[in-house]
Design goal:
Elements lengths: L1 H14 L1 H12 L7 H13 L24
Helix pairs in contact: 1-2
Length: 72
């Protein structure tokens, strides 16, 4: 019964140990990700990766507001 409740935690720990432990310690130490030392470090980590998200152009040439569609 108690093991069934903890199994998702152990599953995440085994699949992503570094990110799990980072989140665990930031929670234990009550670090706010928007405070300066942590925020500047996260910004450096994000900008140092070579992966960039592609710009897909979600607007499709239309500005804003609801769009009307017809379904046949």
């Amino acid at each position: 019964m108690f093991i069934d409740e903890l199994s998702p935690i152990f599953k995440q720990l085994t699949q992503h140990p570094v990110s799990f432990m980072g989140g665990f310690f930031s929670g234990v130490l009550r670090l706010n990700l928007k405070d300066d030392p942590v925020k500047s470090w996260l910004d450096q980590q994000i900008h140092s990766t070579s992966y960039t998200t592609p710009n897909t152009g979600a607007h499709n040439g239309k500005a804003t507001g609801p769009q009307q569609i017809s379904i046949d």
